[in-house]
Amino acid sequence: MTINPYMLAIGLVTDLVSSALSSKPTSSFQTELQEQSVKMDTAVAKEDEKTKTTKYIDSFKDELTTLGASAFVQKLNLEKIEKLIEDKRSELVKSLGLDENTNPPLSEEDRKTALATLEKMLSEYAKELQARMQIKNLQTKNNEILSSVLKNF
């Protein structure tokens, strides 16, 4: 019986590869490979975050240049007001007993009255928020004017 050297070599390589894959990293090469892999994953994650941030900044710039500073601030204020109104709506729905978990449920007439009250309260709240925003904007403008006047002295 003759031993085929190629078959012997293939068997040895197969044994080495399977033992290397099944064992824990013990060689400095395997350890370094794992460390570099972790570093690469971290770098890719940071790059993804930079890309997201860059897209957000570009979107912000585009919107600011399209709308102009004043309209952009007004839009931001309206978004803030809408969010505050939604928060207030959910708070009032619970306090007026309009949510699904109200026990016992409101009668149809009481529900209509509560809904009318809710809309009235939200309308007044929206007006109050808009007035606050206008006052805040006026204060900011006045402070800027005062600051520029004082700088000239």
Describe this structure in words.
The chain is mainly α. It has two domains: 29-67; 68-153. The protein contains four helices and no strands. The longest helix has 45 residues, at 108-152. The radius of gyration is 34 Å and the shape is elongated.
Could you say which overall geometry the principal axes of the C-alpha atoms support?
A: elongated
Indicate how many domains the architecture comprises: 2
DSSP strand (E) fraction?
Answer: under 5%
The poorly predicted ranges are none
Computed Rg: 34 Å
Q: What is the typical, i.e. mean, pLDDT?
A: 81
Assembly type: single chain
Order of helices and strands: HHHH
Q: Tell me about the biggest sheet?
A: none
Structural class: mainly alpha
How many β-strand stretches? 0
With helices defined by DSSP (H or I, 4 residues minimum), what is the helix count? 4
Q: What share of the residues lie within helices? A: over 70%
First-last Cα distance: 108 Å
